[in-house]
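[Automated response] Your request has been received and processed.

Submitted sequence:
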Amino acid sequence: MTLRRSHIGLLALVFAVAAAPSAALAQGAGLGAAGELVDPDVLRVCADPSNMPFTDESGEGFENKLAELVAEKTGRKSVAYTWYPMATGFVRNTLRANRCDIIMGYAQGDELVQNTNAYYRSTYVMVSKKGSGLDGVETIEDPKLADKKIGIVGGTPPSANMATAGLMKNAKNYPLMVDTRFAPSMAEVMIKDMLDGVIDVAILWGPMAGYYARESGADLTIVPLIKEKTGSRMVYRITMGVRPSDQEWKRTLNKVIRENQEEINKILFEYNVPLIDEQNKPITQ
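Generated structure:
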């Protein structure tokens, strides 16, 4: 991406302020319930064309699979995509321009969209090779990390915790802004660098870490950062994003999430997404 969901700094998903659709357009289209601008026949999805494991033009991402599930459960006949890089202007040029009706994955609390209820919680994680002497390390503050080369995506929440722990002197910074239409995901690069000995530990957003760790085929340890005592929070709720005006559509999606959580989790587990419950305990299959 340019601001890919290598995310949450990433997903803090830093977008520019989006312009709201005009009142005249909102009153005149009337595609869905209560005059909302939601297509009743096609699930119109706003998505990044090259952002695995989330979305991809080939339909291989887990948010692609979730879109198919939502389409089925809401009686849509098909799924149609508006593709746009997950970068500044994404919301303004897709959802707020009424070119689509849903963003499948969006961090809770961002004011550019209206959030549904969360359909999963995940966390930043530490990834290391088994047998690397880091057994039992569960926090960034652990003294065992003091002499380790740590890979971190610049600008993401764990970098602040690393700075507090005095670990930035050993850090290898990876860029947040990468256009993955033309270059590999930083998560993929970091996992490869760790296997090649360039870094000892990779700290990444969980869904990306889980997917690329599995894709590597290596025997890796993935530790959820759920025990940090100070600094930035590591755990985030992920929702679906809709327009603020689409209240009935939000209620429909909340019902889909509530009634199909087990099936949603099954899709997420297929992509090795680390899931965390509301008590910050890992959810297992």
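Summary generated for your ticket: The chain has two domains: 23-120+235-283, 123-224. The radius of gyration is 19 Å.
If you did not submit this request, please reply to this message.
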